[in-house]
Structures are given as C-alpha cells and as structure tokens.
Write a structure and sequence with these properties.
By secondary structure, the protein is mainly α. The chain has two domains: 56 residues, no CATH class; 78 residues. It is 73% helix and 0% strand. The chain has six helices and no strands. Helix 3 runs antiparallel to helix 6. The chain is extended, with a radius of gyration of 26 Å. The model has no long low-confidence stretch (mean pLDDT 79).
Length: 155
C-alpha cells in the first residue's frame, strides 16, 4: 500500500506533454506535406488547433448562430425518411403503394443503410464547419472593433 501511495503520477502533466507531442507531430506532418508556412510558428499552430478543437467540441447546434440564420432545419438538413402516397384512384394507388413498400422499399433500405454512415459524417462535418465559421465571424468582429478603436473611428 505504501508503494502505491508514493508512486503517484501527475496525470495532467503527462496528458499535457502527450498532447504537445501529438500536436508537434501533426504540425511537422502538415508542414512536410506543403501546409501553410505560417505553421512554422508552433504557438500559432497551437492557437489554430485550440480554436478548431473548441469548434469540433461543440456537441449540438444549439450553441451555433448559423443554423438559426439558415432557417428551418427542414430546408437545409438531409431528410432520409420516405412517405408513400399516391394521387391516383384507389385501385391503381393501392397496387403502386404495395409495390413501393414490398419491392422498392427493400432496395431503398439497403441503399440507405449503405450510405447512412456517410450522411452522419457529412452532418458532423457540417456542424464543425458551422462552429468554425462562427468562430471566424466572432474573431473578425472583434478585430474590426479593435481596428476602429485604434483608428479613433466610432462607427
């Protein structure tokens, strides 16, 4: 028991060091593959990474402005549900609905299952991009305010 009490590891320090190593490896990889020369500055890279990490950590769109500006989610979100309707008379309509449900639906279901992961990845990517755009808009507004303040312009 005494040995376990003495062998405490500072988890936060270890995690910070590990995160720093991963960040540096990623920075080197991006620079080696022709990334922006601005990333030569490790502090700038860390700032960009922190900004993107915060944007990617936005778990839901309730914290985002852009989805509100886009309007109703039905107008910009992917819809994967299907409705079976027909404007035809009852006889032909019921036959068509039967064919849709029992022939076409299994094919559509297979296609949906096949592409569902891609839809989810795209949804997540859109959410992260919304958060990044919001952060960029915020930074732009702050910088513009600072420029106006420094130039003495009170618009």
């Amino acid at each position: 028991m005494a040995l376990a009490a003495e062998a405490r590891v500072p988890v936060d320090a270890v995690m910070t060091e590990l995160h720093g190593r991963v960040r540096e490896r990623l920075r080197a990889q991006i620079l080696a593959s022709g990334g922006s020369a601005y990333f030569e500055d490790p502090a700038l890279f860390a700032d960009v990474e922190a900004l993107l990490h915060a944007a990617a950590g936005t778990p839901d769109s309730a914290k985002l402005i852009l989805p509100e500006l886009l309007g109703e989610p039905e107008t910009w979100r992917l819809s994967t549900s299907m409705r079976y309707q027909s404007h035809r008379a009852k006889g032909p309509a019921s036959l068509l609905i039967f064919l849709k449900r029992h022939v076409l639906m299994p094919v559509f279901r297979w296609m949906y299952e096949y592409s569902r992961d891609n839809f989810e990845r795209q949804r997540r990517t859109n959410q992260v991009l919304f958060a990044c755009v919001q952060e960029l808009a915020l930074e732009t507004a702050i910088l513009r305010r600072e420029i106006r303040r420094l130039s003495g312009d009170r618009k």
